[in-house]
Amino acid sequence: MQWTLLLVLLIPASPLFAKDSPKINAAIETELPAIVSLYQKLHAAPELSYQEENTAATMAAELRQAGFEVTTDVGGHGVVGVLKNGEGPTLMLRCDTDALPIVEETGVPYASTVKTEDRRGAIVGVMHACGHDIHMANAVGVARCLSKNQARWSGTLVVICQPAEERGAGAKAMLDDGLFVRFPRPDYAVALHVAPDMAAGTVSTMPGYQQANVDSVDITIKGRGGHGAYPETTVDPIVTAAKLVLDLQTIVSREIRPIDPAVVTVGSIHGGTKHNVIGDDCKLQLTVRSYSPQVRKQLHDAIRRKAAAAAASAGAPEPVVDISEGTPSMYNDPELTERVLAAMRGALGEDNVSIAEPSMGGEDFSRYGLAGTPICMFKLGTLPQQRLDAFAKAGETPPSLHSSKYYPDPEPSLRCGIRAMTATALDLLGKDE
């Protein structure tokens, strides 16, 4: 990995964007007020995963206006825009469209006040707390810019607006609905993701594994309920669950190689109804993260084994272990990532482009890579340096993604994101005259 990083750092900045940068930057500045306005519209009207109908309609209209041939309802509320511009490679740019069940507390004038019913039937607030509104507005900005500068590139541009990323399911749904069959199969796929701890005007990425395998694990420990005063007549599932919580912590510390990243977190445990009642079951919810497929399987197998062993030691019935909502780890293609870094350095300057640190967060953009297309995702700084400095001075960290208080500064964030992604597209699709 160290050698890979060194090679990336030595790649010179791409000259393709630099040659046309005054014209391209002027086009971006012309579009920027409308793109910021679109961002605010999207931010104020978020929709949960699988409910992105109005958001999809907005994005479809924007892509049609930019000259794309648009198909809707791909893999649910997915939107695919295709712009053919002569011979050449096919580049796919992806944005995601869903929001989160969070009541917004940012205080910005365009803050979401939306409330809706979630899949459980509960009424929840809805907020773009993961920056998907920036992702969408950025994609429209890039689409407009490239559509109006077709003399500078040749090939096919595919822009997809993917639903249900927060559920780890949207990419799979679009692929299962023929994304790479019904539409031009991409030679490259590029996406960005907002970063709440990076300065607006900066970007970062890295080759290799950048995001983790993410699995949700639900374990039901079964017992035999009864009176709390007579525990000898019961099989207490809460005691078994407590033992299991501790046993699970030894998987990473004692069964996984120290050089292989892995996380097993018990995020929720629920059992019982009253002080003096021993219930019939206890439920645990885990998030499990890794990079390689081998470690992922090792974690799954160990969790099942630990759960069965804890139940057997208590004389309890076999537990139920359900692994769901899995997202595979995201591997940035090294060769493509080198080109992306070079293009962004040419557009933004060396000082504004850095090598990212790997994360244990998840991202279903990974599935396009597993489907055979080289992919690269880069991070986009979204907070002005003065805001970051103010947090540091107060001894605080900025609100994280999925926080009710996270909000990006849209103008500098979008200016940088559109420049970075446009430069990347021109490098991958660019032609010499």
TrEMBL record:
Cofactor: Mn(2+)
Pfam families: M20_dimer (PF07687), Peptidase_M20 (PF01546)
Gene3D superfamilies: 3.30.70.360, Zn peptidases (3.40.630.10)
Residues making up the signal peptide according to the UniProt record: 1-18
Peptidase M20 dimerisation domain location: 213-311
Class of enzymatic activity (EC top level): hydrolase
Cofactor descriptive note: The Mn(2+) ion enhances activity.
EC number annotated for this UniProt entry: 3.-.-.-
Record: residues binding Mn(2+): C130, H132, E166, H193, H402
Alphabetical keyword list: Hydrolase, Manganese, Metal-binding, Signal
Name under which the protein is recorded: Putative hydrolase YxeP
Organism name: Pirellulimonas nuda
